[in-house]
Structure to design on (483 residues):
C-alpha cells in the first residue's frame, strides 16, 4: 500500500514537472520572441518574366514557385541601381549607394582615369553592412558567392561584418573550375574560403554555392544565423551542364543555355530550402529571394517583358525585379503586396526582426517592411524612390515616373496604367514634370560625387541598349504582369 502511494506521488510530481517544463518553453505574453534566422538569396541578371511565379511557361522554376505560394510576392519591388555593384551596395547598407559615391558599376578596365580605378573601387569603409548590424544582434553571418564590393583586402567580406566567406571577390567568373586548360589570371575570379584561402571546387558553381549554404545552415542551426547566398546565375558567361541543357530541346542558342542556368539555379535553391525543413528551421526562418537588377537581354537572352528596358538603364526592365518573402507568422501564404518596396528595405527589415531598434539607426533610406505586411501600416512604404547613374536619373512618385536623359527632354509616365512606359505624358503634364524635376534635383543635392565613373564612350552604348529594348506595343501582347 505504501509503495503504491509512493508511486502515485512520484507519478504526480513527474507529470507536474513535465507541465512546468512545457510551460517554460512556451513564450509568455509579452516575452521576447525568438530571433528568426535569415536566408537571403539573390539571383544575378535574371529576366523579370523568366520565373513561373512571374508567368513564364518556358522555364520551369518549381521551387521558387512553391516559395511564392508559401509567402508573399511583391508586385512592385525595385533595386537601387540597374547594375550589379551599386545595387548590391544599396541593399547591403540600406542606403542609396549614390550617398557614398558608389554610383556606377565598378568594372576594372572600363572606368575613366579621373576617379578611382581597378581594385580601389569598393564600398566605402565607413559604411556599415547588414552583416554588421546582425552581428551586433548576436547572429552568425556568412556571405556565399559573389561579392563585387571591392577586390582589395580592405574591402573583404570578413572586414565588413561577415564571419564566414566562400565565394569570389569580383563581379563574374566561370561556372566551371579554373585549371591549366581553363585558366584565369585575375585573383578576384578564384574561389576563396574566408581570407586568402584559395581553391577551386570541382562542382558547377551554382551547386558548390548551394552546398556551402546547406553546410552553414547545419552548423549553425542552434543559434541565430544570417546567410547571404549571392548566386551568380544567370550572369554571363553563359555556361550550363549538359544534363540541364537537355531539359530544353525546344530552345536553341543562348536562350537554351540561359534556361538551363535558370533551371539549375532553381534546383539548387530548392535544395537549400529543403535543408531548412530537414533541420526543423522553417518556422523560424525569414527567407527572401530577389534579383540584383533587370536582365541584360542582349547578353544572356533574358526576358523582362512586359517591362521595357534591360540591365544598365532606368526603364522599369532595368530596376524592377521579382521578389518573394516567406516569414511564417508575418506573411500570408499565397499573397501579394502591390505597393512599391525597395531592396533598400531589406537591411532595416532584417535588423528589426533581429530585435534592433531601426529608429536609432540614422541615414537609412529603407524601411522595416514588417508592419506594412501585417497591415498595421496601410499607407505605401515609399512615396518616392530615386535613381541616378551619371547623367541619367529617375524619380518614381506614387504612380508617376520621371526619366531624365542626357540626349533628349525628360519624359513622364504613369506606371500604374503604363508599366511598359510606352506613352510619354510630359507634354500633357508640364507642371508635373517641373515639380518632379525639382524634387529629383533636391535629392541630388544630398549625394556624394561619384567615386568612379565609366569612360564617356560607354554612355552611348547604354543609351543605345535602352532604345533597342524600349518595346513597341505589339511586342507586349503575350506578356502581362501576373495579378
Amino acid at each position: 500500500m505504501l509503495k503504491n502511494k509512493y508511486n502515485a506521488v512520484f507519478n504526480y510530481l513527474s507529470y507536474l514537472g513535465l507541465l512546468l517544463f512545457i510551460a517554460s518553453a512556451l513564450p509568455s505574453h509579452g516575452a521576447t520572441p525568438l530571433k528568426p534566422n535569415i536566408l537571403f538569396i539573390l539571383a544575378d541578371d535574371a529576366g523579370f518574366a523568366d520565373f513561373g511565379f512571374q508567368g513564364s511557361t518556358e522555364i520551369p522554376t518549381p521551387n521558387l514557385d512553391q516559395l511564392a505560394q508559401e509567402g508573399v510576392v511583391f508586385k512592385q519591388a525595385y533595386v537601387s541601381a540597374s547594375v550589379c555593384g551599386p545595387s548590391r551596395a544599396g541593399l547591403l547598407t540600406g542606403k542609396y549607394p549614390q550617398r557614398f559615391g558608389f554610383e556606377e558599376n565598378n568594372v576594372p578596365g572600363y572606368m575613366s582615369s579621373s576617379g578611382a580605378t581597378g581594385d580601389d573601387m569598393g564600398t566605402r569603409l565607413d559604411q556599415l553592412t547588414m552583416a554588421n548590424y546582425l552581428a551586433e544582434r548576436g547572429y552568425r553571418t556568412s556571405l556565399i558567392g559573389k561579392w563585387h564590393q571591392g577586390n582589395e583586402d580592405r574591402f573583404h567580406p570578413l572586414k565588413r561584418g561577415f564571419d564566414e566567406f566562400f565565394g569570389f571577390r569580383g563581379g563574374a567568373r566561370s561556372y566551371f573550375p579554373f585549371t591549366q586548360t581553363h585558366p584565369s589570371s585575375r585573383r578576384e575570379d578564384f574561389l576563396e574560403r574566408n581570407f586568402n584561402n584559395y581553391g577551386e571546387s570541382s562542382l558547377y558553381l551554382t551547386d558548390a554555392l548551394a552546398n556551402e549554404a546547406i553546410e552553414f545552415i547545419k552548423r549553425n542551426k542552434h543559434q541565430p544565423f544570417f546567410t547571404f547566398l549571392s548566386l551568380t546565375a544567370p550572369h554571363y558567361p553563359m555556361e550550363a551542364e549538359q544534363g540541364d541543357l537537355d531539359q530544353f530541346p525546344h530552345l536553341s542558342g543562348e536562350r537554351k543555355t540561359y534556361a538551363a542556368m535558370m533551371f539549375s539555379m532553381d534546383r539548387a535553391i530548392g535544395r537549400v530550402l529543403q535543408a531548412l525543413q530537414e533541420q526543423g528551421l522553417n518556422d523560424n526562418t525569414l527567407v527572401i529571394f530577389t534579383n540584383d537588377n533587370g536582365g541584360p537581354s542582349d547578353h544572356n537572352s533574358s526576358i523582362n517583358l512586359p517591362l521595357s528596358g534591360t540591365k544598365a538603364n532606368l526603364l522599369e526592365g532595368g530596376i524592377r525585379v521579382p521578389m518573394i518573402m516567406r516569414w511564417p507568422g508575418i506573411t500570408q501564404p499565397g499573397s501579394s503586396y502591390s505597393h512599391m518596396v525597395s531592396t533598400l528595405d531589406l537591411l532595416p527589415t532584417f535588423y528589426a526582426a533581429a530585435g534592433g531598434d531601426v529608429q536609432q539607426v540614422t541615414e537609412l533610406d529603407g524601411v522595416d517592411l514588417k508592419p506594412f505586411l501585417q497591415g498595421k501600416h496601410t499607407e505605401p512604404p515609399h512615396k518616392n524612390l530615386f535613381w541616378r547613374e551619371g547623367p541619367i536619373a529617375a524619380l518614381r512618385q506614387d504612380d508617376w515616373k520621371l526619366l531624365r536623359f542626357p540626349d533628349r527632354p525628360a519624359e513622364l509616365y504613369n506606371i500604374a496604367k503604363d508599366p511598359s512606359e510606352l506613352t510619354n505624358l510630359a507634354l500633357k503634364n508640364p507642371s508635373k514634370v517641373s515639380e518632379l524635376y525639382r524634387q529629383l534635383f533636391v535629392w541630388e543635392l544630398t549625394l556624394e560625387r561619384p567615386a568612379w565613373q565609366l569612360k564617356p564612350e560607354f554612355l552611348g552604348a547604354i543609351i543605345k541598349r535602352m532604345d533597342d529594348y524600349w518595346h513597341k506595343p505589339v511586342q507586349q501582347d503575350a506578356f502581362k504582369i501576373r495579378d
